[in-house]
Amino acid sequence: MFNIGMPELIVVFLVALLVFGPERLPEIGRQIGRAAAALKRTARDLRDTFEQEPLREITEEDREKLGKSEEEKAQSV
Fold first, then answer.
1. How many domains does the chain have?
2. What is d(CA 17, CA 9) in angstroms, rounded to the nearest whole number?
3. What is the mean pLDDT of residues 12-36?
4. Is the dihedral of CA 10, 14, 19, 20 positive or negative?
């Protein structure tokens, strides 16, 4: 996805180790994992909602009916 190879991952890990320290690094990893899981779960729920309630396409017949009802309202005024 991001086209990151092993050397880049090692550099990222070493920078994170220097910035956060060895004590906080596992905690930060868990937080990132939880956030990624929550994002994935939210995306799945949103996709399921759209699949359960498909959007209704407006057909030409529906457009004609809508147009006629607007004309009828205009004539009655």
1. 1
2. 12
3. 93
4. positive
Q: Can you list the alpha helix ranges (DSSP code H) found in 1-77?
A: 6-52, 60-76
The Cα–Cα gap between 74 and 68 comes to 10
The single-letter DSSP state of residue 53 is: S
Q: Give pTM, 2 decimals.
A: 0.53
The answer to whether position 1 is within a domain reads: no
Q: Are 27 and 16 in contact (CB under 8 A)?
A: no
Tokens (6 digits) for 62: 């529906």
Query: Which residue from 21, 18, 31, 14 is spatially nearest to 6, judged by alpha carbons?
Result: 14
Domain extent, residue 24, equals: 6-76
